[in-house]
Amino acid sequence: MQSKLVSSAPRMWVLVLAPGEEAKRTIVDFTRRNGVKAASFVALGAFERAKVGYFDWEKKEYLPIPIDEQVEVISLLGDIAENDKHEADLHAHAVLGRRDGSTRGGHLLEGVVRPTLEVTMTETPAHLRRRMDPDINVALIDIS
């Protein structure tokens, strides 16, 4: 992955992920190395394979939807917030385009980059934290 700080107030980076990098892990590793506790991001590019999730309300868990083919990342939107362990935690949703023009989308669980993923990340001034909501079994941003 390559990265460049393009603004210092607020801090904004452009990240260019390389083939084979797993998007979530690479972005989270970048935020931890650079002391980013809260941020938002958008990204475009492509994955050689991905896994998105659909939140099943009754089961209180994400049902995985594997996508075992090359897809265009039409839209990848997300945020970074600290979790209960005081670590950067990524939450993102993706719309992925297939060869026939159909799409798949959902909560990003995994995405292996090919050939690239271009991410624009902007640090947010507010210190955000995710807290596990035991009623739904999901860590939600706590703005209190």
Could you describe the 3D structure shown?
This protein is mainly beta and 144 residues long. It has one domain: 60s Ribosomal Protein L30, Chain: A (2-Layer Sandwich). The protein is built from one helix and nine strands. The strands form two sheets. Strands 1, 2, 3, 4, 5, 6 and 7 form a seven-stranded antiparallel beta sheet that branches. Strands 8-9 form a two-stranded antiparallel ribbon. A hairpin with a 5-residue loop joins strand 5 and strand 6. The radius of gyration is 15 Å and the shape is flat. The termini are far apart. The mean pLDDT is 94.
**CATH fold node name:** 60s Ribosomal Protein L30, Chain: A
List segments where confidence is low: pLDDT < 50 over at least 5 consecutive residues.
Answer: none
Going by CATH, the homologous superfamily would be: Hypothetical protein, similar to alpha- acetolactate decarboxylase, domain 2
Form type: flat
Overall radius of gyration:
15 Å
Number of domains: 1
CATH class: Alpha Beta
The topology string of helices and strands comes to EEHEEEEEEE
* Largest sheet properties: 7 strands, antiparallel
Number of β-strand runs: 9
* Structural class estimated from helices and strands: mainly beta
What's the helical proportion of residues?
A: under 10%
Please report the distance between the alpha carbons of the first and last residues.
Answer: 35 Å
- Mean pLDDT reading: 94
